[in-house]
Amino acid sequence: MKNIATGGVLERIRRLAPPHVTAPFRTVAEWREWQLAEGQKRCEEINRQNRQLRVEKILNRSGIQPLHRKCSFSNYQVQNEGQRYALSQAKSIADELMTGCTNFAFSGKPGTGKNHLAAAIWSLPDGEIRRYDRRLNIICRECRKSEVMQRVLAFYQNGFRERLGDQG
């Protein structure tokens, strides 16, 4: 790699650049600082993209449908006393998830808000998604009791490791 200080690169950049354009650096030290700053910006952007991809992957595996991804406790519409109780229980589950492990399962008739509450538990109050934690794995999908028991048994037989395949 050529040495920018001795190769006259800065001078060539000044000559080749249009008259109205000024380089963000004038000396080798400024160039190095500029390179470092640009590299840090790019790293931050890549990290942001990686976080977003991880969240999307987790959401896709969880079964939370796009319809429910913006669900929160504040936009849950309570229509009866049972839903009010479910909302209070879901809020306490969300609080417990931050302090320790807990398990939960929602059951009930279709259209009562089970997926909405599960998605709200996964979301933080400001709408952001929780940082991924292997202990916190919310699965939203319709399934029979026998299927749930098969998945729990497979989880224990697999040494408490997540099953990445066959999440459909």
UniProtKB/TrEMBL annotation:
Q: Which InterPro entries match?
A: DUF977, P-loop_NTPase
GO BP terms in the entry? DNA replication
Return the SUPFAM superfamilies for the record. P-loop containing nucleoside triphosphate hydrolases
Q: Its domain of life? A: Bacteria
Pfam family membership, one: DUF977
- Name recorded for this polypeptide: DUF977 family protein
